[in-house]
Amino acid sequence: MFGDLFEEDFSFISNNQSGKGKKSKHRDTEPPGPREFTSLSGIKNQGGTCYLNSLLQTLLFTPEFREALFSLGPEELGTLDDISKPDAKVRIIPLQLQRLFAQLLLLDQQAASTTDLTESFGWNSNEEMRQHDVQELNRILFSALETSLVGTSGHDIINQLYHGIVVNQIVCKECKNVSERQEDFLDLTVAVKGVAGLEEALWNMYVEEEYFENDNLYRCGACDKLVEASKSAKLRKLPPFLTISLLRFNFDFEKCERYKETSCYTFPIQINLRPFCEQTELDDSEYMYELFSVIIHKGGCYGGHYHVYIRDVDELGNWQLQEEEGNMVEDKVLRDTENAKEVENPLAVLKGILSEEESKQMPVDQLGQKLLEKKGMSWNKKYRKQYGALRKYLQNHPQIFQFSPDENKVGLKEKYHKLPFKSDSQGQVLQSPPQKNDVQWNLEKTSATLRDSSAGCHWFDLNDSKVQPIKEKDIEKQFQGKESAYMLFYRKSQLKRPPEARGNPRYRIPEHLLNEMNAANAELQKKRVECDSANNGIDLHLHLSSCYKFHNGALHPSLTWKESIVDLTIDRRKTLGDLRQSVFQMLESWEGDMILSIAKPLPAGLHIYHSLDGDELTLDGIGLADGADIFVWNGKEVGGTKVLTGLDHEPVILNVLRLAEYNEGGKGQHFTESQHIIPCSTELGALRRALAPSGGIVLKNGSGLGKDAKNWEVLPEEDMKETVKSVGLTDGCSILILDSHDQSLVNVSNGNLTAFTYDISWLQVKNFCRTDAEEKQVKITATIETVMADIKMKAIQELQLEEELANDSCLRPVSGNGKLLSPVPEDYTVKEAELKMGSLLGLCHGKSPTSTQLFLYFIVGSDQHTSPEMEIVVEETASVRECLNLMLEKSGLSGDNWHLRRLDWCYEAGEALSQENATLKELNVCRGDTLVVTEGKLPPKGFLKIPIWWYKPLNRMEHQENARDQVNGVTCKMEALQVSPAGECVQTDMDLCYAGSIEISGEASLEDLKIQAMTLPCCQEQIVPLPAFLRAWTVESKRPGKLLRNNKQQLNEYKLGARVEICIEPLQKEENLGPHELLLRVQMGIPGQRDYYHSTDLVWDISKECTAWALRQRVASHCCLPVDKIEIAKYFPEKFEWLLISSWTQQISKKKRKKKQESLQSAPYHLRDGDIIGVKNLLLDDTKDFSTVRDDIGKEKQRQLALEKKKSRQAERLQNHIFSEEKVNIKHRKPEVALSINVGVFR
């Protein structure tokens, strides 16, 4: 819902920057970073908890609240160590809040975590990712604290600090009787829309009076008649801390949507509440309040981000603006610029211009001209795009602007003309509150103008993990816009802090928390030292010259690589001299000079590049990276052989190809391959003389082996003086050597191959002919034009098999799961066989089919798991009947009661091959297809072969006996459940008995089907007088599905499909359901038990309406109960869940306003024939839990199946190394969920 507005600040990651070659470590292993220059700690955002973080910081910087919480010791709250003890009374929420406050004050980390606190709230990960309203949290948190502190000395903390009283009074104009009502408050909610600022809002609430007069009169209790009266409200009791919530979110009834009010709303740093109080005779200090916290919301009404501006009352932080030090941060400049644009509100500008007008009104055109002179830009250029035309904007604010009768002039309303306006440099109008009832305002104290920052007035912006100092005047930027003030926190000016609390974060913190924080800081410091060492430590691999020998242009270990390397870990901040000294200490037997050189393992071997010089330089300074290879030698020779070093002498591995002397099949070319290690400084002429002493042509392929032959390029004679490196030959490149007798294959003029243009690659062939021996595998060089017969002969030779096998063997591709696919015709080329280079082929017994033959798989029966898959080769011109006979003969079956079907994509018997005289080629049967030999003759054309099931619901006693075997209250007998082929749990509330199958014409009626079903042996045991005493259903997922109505309707009209199954249900009386009648199964709950009586059928006419209320009435009538004394729910057997059917009117969209209520046949109920309706008799059973013990078992079984599926999918992904691509995150608006905090009972 909130997108990426909640950016988690991963402050637990160390600030140390990983150097070059730094090994990656998991972030969780690093300790959290220390506090930044402000010395204040932020709070980590758990995903959507910025609203919680802002409120917690406000409470932390309320010293009186913090110290009152700290005053409660373990003897009252208990200890966190006793949580697991069953009899211990642990007040976990205040304990976790104490611990969090101590961490924020004393723990040396950039940001604290609220995970423990939110767990004490009972929140899960979903709650932590969901944002809520901070005002709602404020009230719920205070309520949770009050409940948690019941029975302790701190039970009244919230009331002492935040409780106030408002008194509402109504005064009768005739008898002067005063009727009053008190209201308690912990916070005040004030309007924003149509109000200029906080003081005006308070004036409207607690000074303005509402009059009852004319048609709106008040009934006076004393006069006992309707009289004129006045209504007002006053603040009777002021709390030490005043919390004010601004109503920024409103609802637009025309658009039917919520919106955020972003207009300008001023509030003062200091405010005098005397005009709003009932008692005004006290000293001014009793009414003076100072702002100390502003919670700010950025975003819209459906999402956003909270942060908070807080005044550091105790001066615990280091307040020092970076711009004052000359280090202005670029992003702050951009933010200030953006905020300055938002602050410029046209409403404030226009009020400022009109307030200066002596005539009180001016023409609208002149107002636009004045705006141009004042701002240097016209209304149309500056504001029209966002606010519309000037005249329309003035008309949209009738509470502020007043037009003349001819609407040519405009001015401010009377109450705004009495207010002195002052406009600042940003166009922001600052005003004093209205003066009424002869109340004298102290403009110096209550002016909305904010003081300049000074000593003792330190403000900070606490934005989750980030804390930075701000100036007091920055609060002005939060008066309006998408990022604006949402909650204000004031404290009484007379509340003074003791001198010992100033700058002392340890003040009044209990001893046990001080000890815990000291231990935590010591542990943090220890981890940071270890992490710093680990982050700056680099692992070097020392290669000792005594363990190496030089041959083929590279260094190779005398023993193994592992035995030739010595690992050394050293701090990257140490010098090269320190490294040399460490190596000397490790190698005590070293004699002579020691040269340390950078080396690198290459495919050809180890190569030395350059020596390290400058013992005074740090290892990081000389670019020594983690995992670097250092060769330790004398700088001249290794094993008596001089070693060439440097980039110019790198050894490269080249693949050298030559034409093979023997080429089978005559198509394409075959090659022999060998590898050679050559220094990259070798001249091509020397290379040719070494590889082709008798002369020849050299061709290169820079793309490596196995690429298209068109990439081959002849190296001309003039390039023979070039080096291997200069012509671009690197590791893995291929060169082709053509001797003098092969030069006819090359057109020297353009340097391209002319005789062949095919891929030079290979195929793998595995021996499947001998099951007693090991299955050997060889690589056969081939091109896309190589004939399969040649590949087979070459494979037989390299596998050293008998040549006679060539007449009784074939090549079969092997699939990824190891299955042998259909053989490839021997006269096909690799290209015609559609084989990819590198594919695996199996050499198997049996002749391969010709190009006119088909290789087919077949199984007998519909279950391929119980029937083995067999193979057969048939002519593509063979008929279906001939193919069927061959398959029956091979499987040892006989008779005419068989037919063929294709295998569908679900690996089940699918479409039947009904045209028995058609050829396989005409029916598009392809090589490798799988056919199913199915028992039974095919029905004639136009006929349906339908399996018939006999359906009989279980009675309640049988149901109870099958399902009730309870141990410790949990049913363990699983026979009441079965698992469908799809892996779903199916509740067996019915008995389905297979009766047999019938063949019936599609033009026959439903009545004919019932009559024919009555002739089946299973059905003859039942006494059924007429077809009208039978009910027909389709079978879906092992249970009745669609109810078939109208006995006279043809079967074709039902669109049953070729694989439909029908179940027949016997009835006690005739039935002929109409199209608007719904058949439901009603089950009455057994009082006091989680079970139901035997279900009864209920026919409900839905022609008039199909609503919840109508169903309740019908069910109540059916059960002979009052409609208000039942509860009903629909059962979803596939989920083992009950959905309560309530009779409340659902919300109706605009398109459906003509419909009074949603139909139960639509979401979420989807009511249809055969649905089970559970009924609770509230006269005997007031529980609304419709679930049964069978449902609990079913859900548990589903959960176990889901876990097994998940594990199998994970194992499959791990085995095949398949990693799915990351999906693009689509921002969806999350559903709104009520906020709650779970609290234990301590009364």
Automatic annotation (TrEMBL):
Entry's Gene Ontology molecular function annotations: cysteine-type deubiquitinase activity
Reaction catalysed by this enzyme: Thiol-dependent hydrolysis of ester, thioester, amide, peptide and isopeptide bonds formed by the C-terminal Gly of ubiquitin (a 76-residue protein attached to proteins as an intracellular targeting signal)
Coiled coil: none
GO cellular component entries: cytosol; nucleus
Xref: PROSITE patterns: USP_1, USP_2, USP_3
CDD domains: peptidase_C19C
Keyword terms of this UniProt record: Hydrolase, Protease, Thiol protease, Ubl conjugation pathway
Leading EC class: hydrolase
GO annotation, biological process: protein deubiquitination; proteolysis
EC number: 3.4.19.12
Annotated region described as Disordered, given as residue ranges: 14-41
Alphabetical list of InterPro entries matching this protein: Papain-like_cys_pep_sf, Peptidase_C19, Peptidase_C19_UCH, UBL_USP40, USP, USP_CS
Signal peptide: none
Span of domain USP: 41-493
Record-stated family: Belongs to the peptidase C19 family.
Protein name, as recorded: Ubiquitin carboxyl-terminal hydrolase 40
Gene: USP40
